Every structure is written in structure tokens, then in C-alpha cells.
Amino acid sequence: MSQWSQVQQLEIKFLEQVDQFYDDNFPMEIRHLLAQWIESQDWEAAANNEAMAMILLQNLIIQVDEQLDRVSQEKNLLLIHNLKRVRKLLQGKYHGNPMHIAVIISNCLREERRILAAASMPVQGPLEKSLQNSVVSERQRNVEHKVSAIKNSAQMTDQDVKYLEDLQEEFDFRYKTVQSLEQNDKNSALIKQEMLALQAMLNTLDYKRKEVLSKIGRVIHEIDMLMSNMLTEELLDWKRRQQIACIGGPLHGGLDQLQNCFTLLAESLFQVRRQLEKLDELLTRLTYDGDPIPVQRPQLLEKVNFLLYNLFRNAFVVERQPCMPTHPQRPMVLKTLIQFTVKLRLLIKLPELNYQIRVKATIDNNRRFVLCGTHVKAMNMDESANGSLSVEFRHLQPKEMKTSAGSKGNEGPHMVTEELHSISFETQVCLYGLTINLETSSLPVVMISNVSQLPNAWASIIWYNLSTNDPQNLSFFNNPPSATLSQLLEVLSWQFSSYVGRGLNSEQLNMLAEKLTGQQVSYNDYQLSWAKFCKEHLPGKSFTFWVWLEAILDLIKKHILPLWIDGYVMGFVSKEKERILLKDKTPGTFLLRFSESNLGGITFTWVDQLENGDVTFHSVEPYNKGRLSALPFADILRDYKVIMADNVPENPLKYLYPDIPKDKAFGKHYSCQPNEVSKPSDGGGKGYVPSVFIPVSKILNDSTEPHSPSDLLPMSPSVYAVLREHLSPTAIETAVSCKLSHS
């Protein structure tokens, strides 16, 4: 089943997450129509290879053309229109930057895998539960309801101001009429009657002025209360969800809803401001003793302006944190002289501001780093699929400045990966006579000068965003706090779900907990230090816990990803637990686990039964990336042979734990079927016999000697058949044991 088919079967809450990251940059129609083809391409490699990205872009356009021909024959007008639009987008937007579309598609596929992994995990961790708190959802609904009510109140006050304006115009007319009559006869009964009527109208005007000012005051108070409480909490919650999403957690939504609330409040405040300006006009035409406008209007206008200043300042946010396109799963780690992207949004979406706000990006104030590239750009509504007022910097590069001695500060492999920096942004909004200076900053970033520093830098980003919701504590690692083990394990599971498409189950997390603490502990109570996570070596090892775990992630990503996603790699299980699981199983049952002593190694252990009925276990030397680059792991499991003394070579691996036939589990991942014995003429070019690598291990009868596999030996099926036909098992064992000499 294709990945897209699995996505379509998800529950609605997960489908809503998928919907959030498909937009006009990569329309969902194309994902749906070209699902199989898209999933068969290596978009991640293309994201770092411009020539490959250009070829994939051209092929993508060809695929769209083929779909366009098909739907044209079916006369599907809507789909024809959409496909033509997509084709124009692909040719126009990405022709000059094909790696950008490769990055977008790669990110979409990765997010799909993460969501599929999250959907398959039966238990939510404490962090994810806190993000989906029902109280938060209720507050979101209350905010939207109150904003809507405020907007309605402001519009109704507009009608009151209009009524007041009409009433005053009538008063002006009648007053001028009385003045003209007075010139002829000041003492007539008609004039006295008109004067009484004018006094009644003035009383009504005074009452209406007070009423309008009171209603305006209530609207302002409602906005003030909403901004001070619920809206501020909503914005802080969104920023916290963004932090968690950056370290692999659930996708953070809600920014469009916040934008709607901010925009409606801004529109209401500007509407109130216009109402106060209208009252000022009415004041210039008519005032009297006890007039409430000159007393109350200045205070109300000052409060409106104050609220507008605060609203705009809070509305200027970093929508997408700094990230190198080459490492989309590692945001906030920036390499010197390598481009990164960052996107900002103003949550107040007013047409008058389109292309009117220029944003400037800078880094730190310590002058150690500078930003190269285009660091001033205008916000606009045209680049975002949802029409938001935003700006995306795509060509910024951090550069380390030379010191006074002419050398760079910490440039090189020893740059401190616990040193935090900040990318700052500033702009100015000029609107309706108001000038508002806006500033915001990214979450703390870590600078590296070599990709070898990336794992430890990423560990710093994880620890910071797990441990604090303070967006700007650049001295955090002067005294890093401890983290709750339960939350840390949840984040570690996210590393696997976001990076390699499948999270960790409770048993795997238990093993990691024991490795971190050296004992069985309660998740909820245990506090783990930063040093234990990333600084101190594991007992008896020359590496830290995080380096060990990062090497496993790299191994999965590059060599065993399909097996991991299928759930066939138990991976995190201790040797002791491994034997408990296998001891009662059918001989030949095996499981796959990650090496605890070799970085980035994977091994398999199988259970066997001796003639006397005793159970024995065999584990092969871990396979590392060097050996797995020569032979796919699934093929190793298929072709693996063991040579026992006085026995012919055989494959001891029969069932994947608990009882899955090996070929049923891994058959679809075999690179090809084992070659049958071939004649030289069948071998292809120049009459050679085809050869394949066959992994072979030797197990001695003497149980006191350690079991160790040999290196992978090149042995064709035909050669192996000849050996079996002409040599005894002992002779074969002797041949396999010998060291190979290079010819």
C-alpha cells in the first residue's frame, strides 16, 4: 500500500494535520494524482543536488502533462483548470530554483510519515497531551466568540454615531431656522416653541453623546481584557506548540485562527478610532457646557492607540523558525556560510499594508556573526498560499567575523555547540497617522562550522525547547536545568517518528530509560541532567548516550529505513531481555537489535537447541554502515550462512520474533532473488560466472571460544554449489576460516 493510501485512511484529526502543510507551493491534487511516482523518487537527495533536482522537476512537469492529457479526454473541466495552474506554477516558480520544490516535497513526505507514525502509537506522552488539553480548545472557541461579539458591537456603535450625526444635523438646521426667525420677531410664540424644542433636542444630543462614548468605552474595555488575558495566552500557547513542533512534536496549527482574531480586533480598533474622529468633527460644529466629548474623547483615543501599539507588536511573529534546507529535520542549527530560510508573518492582515512593510534581519549584538545575503525584504500577501501578510528570507548566510588578531573566534571543529544566538527582525508600520516600531526574534539558534558538530548542536536545541518556554534565554546553558525523564523519552520518540517515520513503543522507551539512568525508574519522578544526556560517556564506553542514539538514527535513515518503518526492527532491547524473549521460541527464531557497544551498528540474535535439549543463543558481530553499503540488510538476512563443525553451511534464520516467517517479513525488501547455479555462458559479459556476496559465520563446537562472524565473503551460488559437491564440510570450514589474500 502506498504511503498516500495509508494517509487517506487516517482519522479526521490526523487528516487535518496533513491538510495544513499542503498549499499552493505543492498542491494536494498533484500529491494525489501522482502518488506512486512521487513516492518512488529520491526528493531528499535532490534537495541537495541541483542537477538531480532539475531532472526531477522536468519529470514532474512531464507527469503533470500526461495527467492533463488524460483528464482532457475525460472533459473534466475543473481538474483541467487546476492542472494547468499547477503546470504554470511549476514552470514559473521553480525553474530557477529546482531544489526548492525538492525540499518542499521531501518535507511533505516526511511529515506524512511522522503523522502516520503518530497515528499508530496507542499512547500519547505528557507533552502531546498538554498541547491537546480540552481547556485550551475551549479557550480558543471563547476567544473567537468574543472577537466576533466585539466586532458586532463596534459596527453597532457605528450606527449610533451615524444617528448622532443625523440628529446634530437636524439640530443645526432647526437652530439656523430659529436664528432667521428671531431677526423678524424675537418674542413670537412660535419662536418660544422652537426654542423649547431645540432645548429638548440638545438634551437628547447630550444623552446620545454620553451613550455613544459609553459604548465606545465598553468596546475598548472588552478589547483590552481580551488582549490582556485569553488572546495573550493563545499566542503564548501557539509559540509553545511551535517550539515542540521544531523538535519533532505534533504539527502546530492555529496561526490562521489567531490571524483572524488579531485582524478583527485591529479592524475594530481602527473603527473605534474613526468613531472618535467623527465625534471630534461633531465637537467642532457644536459644543456646550457639560459636553462629554472634550472630557472623555482624549482618554479614549489614547487608550485605543495604546491597544493598537500592543496588538501590532504581538502580531509580529516568526512563522517558520530558521532552518537550513539541507537539514529540514534540524531547525535552528545553522552552519556558517550555508544559506538558511526563515519566515515571518504579521497577524494583522490589512490590504493597506501590502508591500508597505520592510523587514530587516540581523544577528546578535556581540558582533561575532553577521548575516550575508538579502537581509531586507518587504512583507506581502502574494507569496503565501493563504494570502497572509508575510515575508520569507531564503538567502541568508551567517558568517563569523575575524577577531582583531585576524583569526576567527571559534571557527572550526571546536565551535561551542551550547552557545546560543538569536536572529532578530525589525520593521516599522505607518498607518492612519500611527507609526509603530516592531521587533521580534527567532528561537535561540546554534552556530556550527562543520557538519560533524550537527548532532551535539541538535541535542542543545532539543534540551532548550524541551526545558523552557522562554523564547530568548541565551544564557540557558550556563546552568541548564534537568528534564523530566517522561518528557525526554517522548521527545526521543519524536526524533524517530519525524526523522525515520516510526516512533518508539513503550518497550523500546523502557530500554532507553534504563540506559540513561542505569536502573529501572519511575518516568514521572525522575529528573535527568543535561550532562547525563549529552556530556558524560556511557559506563564503559567512549561515547555519550546522545552520540549513540544519533548514530542509530543515521543507520536507520541510510540503510534499514523500510525495515524500520514496517516495524520489523525491535532495535532497543538489552542482551538480557533478548534472551528472555527468545528462550522459549522455535529454534531459528531471531530478532534485530542495535549494538550497545558499536556506534551505528545492528546485529541479529537467534535461538538454537543443542542435541541435549539445552537452549543456546548466537549473535553476529554488528553490521555497520560500511558493510551495509556493500550489501542490503534484507539480503544479508536472506543469504546469511553458518558453518558448524562437521555440518554443511545453512541459514539458521527461520522466523522473525515472535513467529513471522523470515521471507514473509523481508521478502518485499530483497534486492533480487538468489541466483541459481549458472553455467559460465549464463553469466553475461565475457563468460564470467555472476557473483554475489554471501555473509558467512563459523561457529565452533568448543563453547568456550567466542562466537564471531567472518567478514562478508564474495561467493557466487555456482561456486558454493561446486564446493558442496567436491569438498567435505570440514574442508569448506577450513577454506572459510582462512584469511583472503588480495590478488
From TrEMBL:
The protein's matches in PROSITE patterns, at most eight in alphabetical order, are given as:
SH2
Entry's Gene Ontology cellular component terms:
cytoplasm; nucleoplasm
Q: What are the residue boundaries of the SH2 domain, all occurrences included?
A: 564-666
Q: Which InterPro entries match?
A: p53-like_TF_DNA-bd_sf, SH2, SH2_dom_sf, STAT, STAT4_CC, STAT4_DBD, STAT4_SH2, STAT_linker
GO function terms (MF aspect): DNA binding; DNA-binding transcription factor activity, RNA polymerase II-specific
To which protein family does this belong?
A: Belongs to the transcription factor STAT family.
User: Which compartments does it reside in?
Assistant: Cytoplasm; Nucleus
Taxonomy, superkingdom: Eukaryota
Q: Which organism is it from?
A: Vireo altiloquus (Black-whiskered vireo)
An individual GO BP term: defense response to virus
The name of this protein is Signal transducer and activator of transcription
Ordered alphabetically, the record's keywords are:
Acetylation, Activator, ADP-ribosylation, Coiled coil, Cytoplasm, DNA-binding, Isopeptide bond, Methylation, Nucleus, Phosphoprotein, SH2 domain, Transcription, Transcription regulation, Ubl conjugation
